[in-house]
Design goal:
The complex is a heterodimer of chains A (290) and B (165).
Chain A (H helix, E strand, L loop, with lengths): L6 E4 L3 H11 L3 E4 L5 H6 L7 E4 L9 E4 L2 E5 L4 H6 L1 H6 L1 H6 L6 H6 L2 H7 L5 H8 L3 E6 L2 E6 L4 E3 L2 E2 L6 E8 L4 E10 L6 E11 L5 E9 L6 E2 L1 H8 L7 H10 L10 H24 L4
Parallel strand pairs in A: 1-3, 2-3
Antiparallel strand pairs in A: 4-5, 5-10, 6-7, 6-10, 8-9, 11-12, 12-13, 13-14
Helix pairs in contact in A: 9-10, 10-11
Chain B lengths: L1 E3 L3 E7 L2 E7 L5 H8 L18 E4 L2 E4 L12 E3 L13 H8 L9 H14 L5 H7 L11 H17 L2
Parallel strand pairs in B: 2-6
Antiparallel strand pairs in B: 2-3, 4-5, 4-6
Helix pairs in contact in B: 2-5
The chains are: A alpha+beta (290), B alpha+beta (165).
């Protein structure tokens, strides 16, 4: 269980990194936290000829809130999402989801940019950035590109990033007014890959009426999925109560079975989790001042 | 910028001592510690980031040394189980508590668990049982059923509480 040999590159600036990616293309893998790439290399499922280590790029560690946007550097570690007061205030969904990611040792090293680029369908952060309507900022020697989260995830472990592009930051709209959010998931053991997960973000007006809702399920499709039918029920005032959310999610999904669980299990679990996430997000929003 | 297919010589700190090591890019931190620096207290179990046996601290945070390329750790500070030893070869309070509470049997997972708990107790000197269990969730122990090692960590936490004003 030792990784194969590779050529190692440690750029010191983003410009150097982008030049390397332009030159090496598909031959290179980007090393950030390494919590997915290194196991794949230890198993020799990934055999990159070149590894571009971005851990020296300090500008990718910087995060700041400007106006209504929280910009998180791609090298933001999961541990920082879990602990940072800035994230807790401006992107509480990410803070809520972070403790579900792997184990403490993984969260020390794993990064936001790495998790999104890896695009594991069962991962927490891809679903969260979709629920938050975040924007992924990708840079290449050709320039910078801003990709809405809804257009970023293409399939299992596949994004719309080009081989010469580096994910440099994620921009999250900071909630204004009565916005509530919640994340939940089910795994065989805490820290295992999720069997199903759900994130919800709801906005209430002063009268407590839902004006906007985003409901996302994870680990039930090749990418995280928004469930429009559940969102419509919420903005329609949930005429039939919360159970309708569960039913709408179950009717909308068509998961593929996994080794451990059937498609039926995933569909039913996702429905229950979505209902719980919506319920918690509504309670969170109601607790915020009108 | 550094580029090479062959070996790299890097400086890092291991258990408070500046060290220089020459490694292939693919060399994992766990192997550097065990084979080059002869710090065999760090154990390798699964070698793919599941069992937690190889956990060390990197800049004070727990990390799996089987998932880190040594070459990437330029200037970083690594702490292994060997750093816990007190003068005269005595066990530190957490290690002593593990012995007192039967927190280990075969001992294979113990170095990693000690390092994870060391990080926790530095951040939160008096964690409750839930926090201790959260912290050891990334470790597989097949001997103790975890109860005794959780007891051991909680006993250290209580002891500190009595000393504190």
């Amino acid at each position: 269980m030792k990784p194969p040999a590779f050529a190692y590159h440690r750029p010191e600036t983003v410009g150097e990194a982008l030049d390397l990616l332009a030159e090496l293309g598909e031959e290179a893998k980007i090393l950030a936290g390494g919590q997915s790439l290194v196991p794949l290399m230890n198993f020799r499922l990934a055999v990159p000829a070149h590894v571009v280590d971005v851990n020296g790029l300090t500008e990718l560690t910087l995060s700041a809130q400007r106006g209504g946007v929280l910009r998180l550097g791609a090298l933001t570690r999961h541990r920082e999402l879990e602990r940072s007061p800035l994230v807790a205030g401006a992107a509480p969904l990410l803070a809520a989801a972070a403790p579900f990611i792997g184990h403490p040792q993984i969260r020390s090293m794993g990064t936001l940019g790495g998790s999104l680029s890896h695009a594991d369908p069962s991962a927490e952060l891809p679903g969260c950035v979709l629920a938050l309507d975040a924007t992924v900022v990708a840079a290449s020697a050709r320039g910078e590109r801003r990709i809405p989260a809804g257009e970023f995830f293409a399939s299992h472990f596949t994004t719309t990033l080009e081989s010469d592009e580096l994910l440099v930051a994620v921009e999250v709209p900071v909630p204004a007014g009565r916005v509530g959010c919640a994340f939940t998931e089910v795994a065989a053991r805490h820290g295992d890959f999720a069997l199903a997960g759900a994130a919800a973000v709801v906005t209430l007006d002063d009268a407590g009426v839902v004006t906007d809702a985003r409901v996302v399920c994870a680990a039930v499709a090749p990418t995280p999925v928004r469930v429009a039918a559940a969102e419509k029920l919420l903005t329609a005032g949930l005429p039939g109560g919360l159970t309708e959310v569960e039913t709408a999610v179950q009717d909308s999904l068509d998961p593929t079975p996994e080794l451990k669980v059937s498609a039926r299990y995933k569909r039913r679990t996702a429905g229950v989790l979505a209902r719980r996430a919506v319920e918690a997000a509504l309670a969170d929003a109601e607790g915020r001042a009108a | 910028m550094t580029t090479s297919t062959t070996t790299h010589t890097i400086d890092l700190t291991v258990n408070g001592i500046p060290r220089q090591v020459t490694v292939e890019p693919r060399t994992l931190l766990a192997d550097t510690l065990r084979t080059q620096l002869r710090l065999t207290g760090t154990h390798l179990g699964c070698e793919h980031g599941v069992c937690g046996a190889c956990t060390v601290l990197v800049d004070g945070e727990p990390a799996r040394s089987c998932l880190l390329f040594t070459v990437s750790l330029v200037g970083r500070s690594v702490e292994t189980v060997e750093s816990l030893e007190e003068p005269g070869g005595r066990l530190n309070p957490l290690q002593q508590s593990f012995q007192d509470h039967h927190g280990l049997q075969c001992g294979f997972c113990t170095p990693g668990i000690l390092m994870s708990l060391t990080a926790l107790l530095r951040d939160e000197p008096h964690p409750d049982e839930g926090r201790v269990r959260d912290q050891v969730q990334g470790h597989i122990c097949r001997c103790t059923g975890y109860q005794q090692l959780v007891d051991a960590a909680l006993a250290v936490s209580d002891e500190d509480a009595e000393v504190a004003p």
